[in-house]
# Entry
Amino acid sequence: MPRDTLAMLTLNTGKIEKLPNLISFKTPKEPNIWIAGLFKNEPVSKPKYQSDKTKDSLKQIIDSLQYVIGSLAPAKTEGKDSVTDHGRNNKLVLINTFTGTSLAFKNVSDYVFNKKGTELLLEQTLDLKDTAKTSRVILYHLLTKKTDTLLKGGNDFKNLAISDDGSQAAFVAQRGAKAKAPGKYYTLWYFKQGMDSALMIVDTLTANFRSGERISELGKISFSKSGERLQFAIAPARPPKDTSQVDIDKVNVDIWNYKDDYLQPYQLANQKRDRERSYVAVYDFKQQKMLPLGSSYLPTVYEGTLADARYFVAVTDTGRRIASQWAGNTRKDIYKVDVANNKYIPAILNLDGDIRASWISPSGKYVLWYDNTTRHYHVFDGNNAINITAGIKVPLYDEENDVPDAPSPYGVMGWQDGDTRVLIYDRYDIWSIDPTGRTAPVNLTINGRKNKVTYRYIQIDEEEDFIKAANKNILNVFDNTSKQSGLAILENNKLSAFLQPIQPLYISQVNKAKNAPVYTYSKESYIASPDLYLQQSNNVTRLSATNPQQKNYNWGTAALYQWNTFSGKPAAGIIYKPEDFDSTKKYPVILYFYEKLTDNLYKYVPPAPTPSRLNISFFVSRGYIVMTPDISYTIGYPAKSAYDYIVSGAQSLAKKAG
# Structure
């Protein structure tokens, strides 16, 4: 198959430059002038066929097949170098978009920028005939155009990582064994600018390294924000593949124990994932100490987002997973992990509820979870567990839950400065909660429930640790009755203004300039495709016109339609009609239903192929009326509920048409 092409558009001239045979490309996370693209170095040329009509057609087919086979990368095989492993014929091109100049590195298999775009870390092989001696990891300094060789010689390097400021690098390496050895064992290597070369800092002999485990080449390596801690992965040591017997002579037997966490079909379907599973470990540079945090018993470990948070949170449902087949969820044990002394403190055991990584306080001081039994949020501070939302008298869980499971909570908006408050959602409003439980919860949006308007936070800065109360925090505002939306500002824990009033549109893709009150967002409706707008103060400028050709087509309209079901319940749906609808004519009608769709009233539906959904605009444009009725289920009676809403809606529409 043909490879991708890297295309670069110069905005002020409209010029497009294309580089073929692209494997991948990367840019620094922060805005920068650099692009790195990995390319297949020797593009395969298409064979030239003779024009002789009498030529054997079978020969043409064979030539074509040879071309296709030659275009494919060699498959990975145990003990053999692959294209990916050693960058065979892969060329890395580093492009300076400001000057237009470029620099190429041959035989590159992996590469990564630091966040600021001042350093480029890459794995390169100098001589493909002797990869074990000439493979190397190098650090290219983009500002000085100098290169440091961090480590040279080895069978394999994996998981290149570099700190945000570019001063530190880490990776795992497989060295000291034959390339065709049946088992590969990796060690963790570290480099800091000023060192002559990288040093091996963790192997299986390192203090605290658990017996029977190894460093995983499949897990992620990352530096903490301050660069004072390195996170990597460990995994159970697997026995090397038995090569003494050919595969055709092997007998495979699947054995399942009734005490297993998963049924046998599930185990078989997830063999690869389970083989590659790894667990979190950290290396602390100040203490010069490695600590394994996760394990087969504690497979899930969360870290506070604040740099070098002292506390992690470990979660396990080991031994209780099989119940998820009929219960829908599993009971969990939650531990607060003190990295300083490798101490595991039980926060709650056998929880019937929910915990998520984003709910943990940024410093890791507080562990927050939702309890399905109390239907409230609880925190653990290292000593005590407290119900922090007991003072809130409205439901914090899905009020419209219509499935035979515990209703899910509406969720957590985030933590405010210094873990002082946590912001939690009900169906409509945002509540400010004291994690110590000393002060009463405060409703920040006040009238959301009264007006049936839902407020939800839009995170602009993806790297923020805390939601700062003094900032102009942007909220999405959704009117549950009219299905209209707007944008509001929450400042100093009060609704201060509307950035955009509630209006018959759907607003999304909101962004803000880093150091100025300048905003961009998109607006759309069923009749208007999404366009981008710029707002400074009260001045709004439309920046795009994405679909002007729509005026040449018979489009459509969308409106809410309401009726009562056979059981007397109020019901709602959307009626889509052709743009040239004539009430004196008859139209074919399609009913399309899937749970509840009325919240999509103002969403644009492009006439594009869909995998399973009805493409509404396609049919409406061709003279159909489409109705999408919402369905509210009575637990235990899904078919009867669907009939009640769908058929009653169809009959109501038919009566109105008649």
